[in-house]
Amino acid sequence: MLLLSKIAALGIVIWFYMTAEKNGQPAIKWAIIGLIGFLLGWFVLDFIIDQQLDFTLGNVVKYVCRAKHKGKELEDLKKAAVYLDRQIKLLESKHE
């Protein structure tokens, strides 16, 4: 698993580097941003697993955590709200 994650991280760095070069952007800057995003994703995943969150609540955490970093903050927060609303409705139906 660790080897697979290292390969994935390397692939992401290379992809960001090449895409930035193609678009006339500073390639090193974007490679570093890609790597940081990958690492943040792993920290969020560790938190979700550590807290034993199910799929629905895990997605709430994922979308809230990435909202400010992906350039689509409002869209991500709306997605988090959809998953949170689903969880609330599920709990309400169990208590009726």
Question: What do these coordinates show?
Answer:
This protein is mostly helical and 96 residues long. The chain folds into two domains: 1-51, no CATH class; 53-96. The protein is built from four helices and no strands. It has helices spanning 2-22, 27-50, 55-66, 73-94. Helix 1 (2-22) runs antiparallel to helix 2 (27-50), helix 2 runs antiparallel to helix 3 (55-66) and helix 3 (55-66) runs antiparallel to helix 4. The chain is elongated, with a radius of gyration of 17 Å.
Detail the topology: elements first, then pairings.
Elements: H1 2-22, H2 27-50, H3 55-66, H4 73-94
What is the CA–CA distance across the termini? 43 Å
Q: Which of globular, elongated, flat, extended, rod-shaped describes the shape?
A: elongated
Fraction in helix: over 70%
Task: Please give the largest β-sheet.
Answer: none
Taking pLDDT < 50 over at least 5 consecutive residues as the criterion, the unreliable ranges are none
Question: What's this, in brief?
Answer:
The protein is mainly alpha-helical and 96 residues long.
Notable traits:
96 residues; mainly alpha; 2 domains; 82% helix; 0% strand; elongated
